[in-house]
Task: structure prediction
Amino acid sequence: MTPEAPPPDPHQLSPEDLPTPFSAAEIRDGCPPGRTLRFQIERAGQDPVVRVSRYVETDTDGAVQESWTEDLEGRRLSDPERERSTWLELQEHASFPRATTVRTEEEVEIRAGRFACLRYTRTDPDAIWRFWFALELPGQPVRYERGASGQVVFCATLFESQSA
Result:
């Protein structure tokens, strides 16, 4: 009799990638309808804006998110866009290649609060990407940034997370 193989790790999507911070099921459970995230987006040489993302419909397979851009005073700059994704597709956004990514534990303090995070640092030939995933907030990273030529050229930081 051969021993039973352990169940596959739901965080491991590919042997070539690091484990993701959240499984598809954890993202589904943490992103109910009405969950709304507000990120301040900063791009080098541009005025900051706010990107709002709201889960408007969810089911066992996935979610419909509605997103739009606002200025810092809360005035809409774009019409809402709707996109449906499966929970697995949302998980895949955090699946990074083992060969070019380092995962560490780090605490981060941002406007939305202080969070224990898994930080993924991915180095590409022309950029360094850093993603901070708060362990208590399954889904999108609470902060992510792109660096090039020793400077941060893009940064998105969560400043508000509301549940319905």
Summary: Residues 65 and 83 are 5 Å apart (CA to CA). The helical segments are 24-30, 87-92. The two ends are 51 Å apart (CA to CA). The first strand starts at residue 36 and ends at 43.
